[in-house]
Design goal:
Length: 195
């Protein structure tokens, strides 16, 4: 079986099928990275398309210092973060559904809480850079060194962003903690945090 790097080099050399074969190997992972980073499938589709076009056009710049899969991952993360930045310039305010909005009770934290929506909302309150690090470490399970390599950042920066992001997530998701539950010495995330 041809390796990823060989497919990338074959694409650069003019093989018309090599890039397609490379993307088919990694498409599911790259799509998941785009969705997790962007937070919705519409922006993820646009970001992934931009990333694949960029990778196709700049394949000759691949230096072989890491894996071709890691190189693609980094391009998708960067395009996803760029998409989020552009969206912030054109912020869209969603209109509440008139059929369900009057029945929503924001003070009811336990009944009907959809954990995945709560976590997704909390992730999107992080900075784009913090979200990329948290997704890579805590969702994808990548080691710090690999995250640093893929995002082209020092390990210390990855540790710092991860620490800040986790502290912010703890505050944002504190309402999900049952006050009667023993959480093994973990400080209640709803308590005021020192600054």
């Amino acid at each position: 079986m041809t390796g990823d790097e060989e497919l990338l080099y074959a694409h650069v050399a003019g093989d018309p099928d090599a890039f397609t074969a490379l993307i088919e190997r990694h498409h599911s992972h790259l799509w998941a990275v785009a969705v997790r980073t962007c937070g919705n499938p519409h922006d993820a589709a646009d970001a992934l398309q931009e990333a694949l076009i960029s990778a196709y056009q700049t394949a000759d710049q691949f230096r072989g210092e890491g894996s071709a899969g890691g190189w693609l991952h980094r391009i998708v993360v960067n395009c996803s973060l760029d998409r989020l930045r552009r969206n912030k310039l054109h912020r869209i305010i969603p209109i509440a559904d008139p059929e369900t909005a009057p029945f929503a009770d924001p003070s009811d934290h336990m009944a009907g809480v959809d954990l995945s929506l709560s976590i997704g909302d909390a992730l999107h309150q992080l900075t784009d850079e913090q979200r990329a690090v948290i997704i890579a470490i805590d969702v994808e399970g990548l080691p710090l060194a690999e995250v640093a390599r893929r995002l082209d950042l020092p390990v210390g920066t990855i540790k710092s962003r991860s620490s800040r992001a986790r502290a912010r997530l703890a505050r944002l998701l504190g309402h999900l903690v049952d006050p009667d539950m023993d959480v093994g010495g973990i400080v209640d995330a709803r308590a005021p945090q020192p600054t």
